[in-house]
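Record type: monomer structure entry
Structure origin: computed from sequence
Chain ID: A
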Amino acid sequence: FLPSYTYDELNFNGVAIKDVTFDKLVTYFDYFDSDVSNVLPMQSADKYFDYAVFARQRRLNHKPFSYTMNVMSDYTGKAIIRTFVGPKFDRFFDLQFYKKYFFEIDQYLVDFTAGKNTFVRNSREFYWSVKDRTMYTDLYKKIMLGYNGQEKFALDMSEAHCGFPDRLILPKGWTSGMPMQFYFIITPYTTKTYEQGYQYDKTFTCGIASGMRFYDSLPLGYPFDRVINFSYFYTKNMYFKDVFIYHSDEMKMNQTY
């Protein structure tokens, strides 16, 4: 297996995360109606709007949240922030076991200036997650209304081809608050060279085997993908944040926050 990352492979000289603050983290179950109208045989497409069949299910969801990160930097330029969520553990050395349960939920490119830098990130902006796709019934209605001149039709209604469901970013919390941890690491940004003319667009491809969906050449899960050497692992460009995830028993019906 690959050796532990060296200190130089983990450290970002001159960059130190000072603190991270979170909004209240709340999960809940909502009722979601999935359109299954296509199961009905239709003699004519004109009758399509006369019938609708929906399948209702309970789904885990969460309220959108933001966090604020303050970073002191002697570095000026671009960098990448990676965000993980994982279980709370008591002893730092227990991370060797629990690291496999830390899940990368976001990575994004930022610009640093010398001095204090403040970054605010909303869960709706997370790189790996996507929203629900538009149901076929809604899409068909928009097309027909536009065709009949009753509504202006948007020429670009592109949606993500694939990704992790946004509603599942947080695990189900507890009414009293479930202890969890967020982990952050900031790494230098280095440009990469790809085939000329190829660009990653999640609206029509997952980017498998292209490398275009990653900002750099570091593997998914870095730095938890190798055995940890605790003699130098915890560097100033890393930060563990203890949080509580609460769960609301109130049922919500396809509500958007």
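Annotation 1: Residues 193-198 have pLDDT under 50 and may be disordered.
Annotation 2: The longest strand covers residues 238-253.
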